[in-house]
Design goal:
By secondary structure, the protein is an alpha/beta fold. 41% of the residues lie in helices and 14% in strands. The longest helix has 16 residues.
Amino acid sequence: AQLTAVGIPVMGHVGLTPQSVHQLGYRQQGKTVEAGERIFQEAIALSDAGAFAIVLEHIPADLAGRITQKIPIPTIGIGAGPQCDGQVLVTTDVLGLSDRLPPFAKSYVNLRQIITQA
């Protein structure tokens, strides 16, 4: 809330975050009732704090739908199902530049291999 109070735009991010990837790998977040409720409450808190939108990454589609219905700001899904207000494809995943592809992502070309063989 302090950032938005001084005019700094904030986009929230819940579910699979860089911090959780480093600790747990690319596992879907929010699968248990408790974990889902924690993510739900985090999304509400971010909205209440003045975020202009929230990224919902690698959470169950029904949880993403509940969050999208509850909060008044746009939700942007990354592997979070079709009920989000918008969807994102990560460029490094789509182009095959990552050494590890998240389970929800699709790669359309393996540029990593092409580049290393060039």
